[in-house]
Amino acid sequence: MDWRRRLFEELLSRKDKRAGVWGAYAGSRLRVEPTTLAALACLAHDPAVKSIAGEVGGWVTRQQRPTGALPLSEGLDASSWSTACAILYWSGTESEPKSMERACDWLLGHDRSRGARYVGEAIDPPPGGWPWVEGTFTWVEPTALAILALSRCGEREHPRVVEGIGVLLERAIEHGGWNAGNSRVFDRELRPQATSTALALLALASRGDRPAVVKKGVEWLTSALDDTRAAASLGWSILALQAHQVPIDGLERKLEDASALALERSETTMGLALLLLAGSNGSLGFFLSESALKRGLEVGGLSR
Fold this sequence. Notes:
304 residues, disordered C terminus
């Protein structure tokens, strides 16, 4: 059986039978992030599976709070980065425009004054970005996800998005890549991380120029690809490199081997979903705006 089909069927088998959505693992608490990514992956693999869109769309919409934000999972109230994931899902499936608008308004209006970065031994509030959970410090990954989501909604030039892009550029590590938060702590350069670097590069992919930090980030991520084992990190990395039009040697075999290992290890739902997205034609359209794709940033040609 084709590795894509195996991932697809494994994702379907993990769906909660009652709600029709996903948790981090089969049988775990239902969450917005794995649900939206798994649904997009299934739809990328087989657009005819329309029942998924209906089940997921209804459940995700019911999680939205009066503020427009979404929590990590059902039963929780704290607003989180899952709001951006919901926007990407609604945008990708062209559904729930009112819910999407409310979610975008929440992201754009989010109070970013609670962030912090280390400068020597002091904490200095950064100019923007988004946190994992409302009221906490800002980080690279939720900032990148918010930029991707808002850009998909046509807000690429909004001052908050421009500000967020500036945060990503400012937090790049001098020698290439991104860590989860800052580039330095206590005057020591941090090590780049694959997921943080991939998401930052994906969020920066639709820029018309290529600053030096982006070029260095692409070079680092390319060099780190063979040593990237975690399914989610590998999936994000491949999507980011595709967005920057970087050829990946042996991509089909790399994804096939990674999927076999992920299934053997019972990887997270999100990890399986990202591998399937990385191996499905058209997946970049879920993350990059039409204007970005028109600039020639989409890389196709993966065999099905």
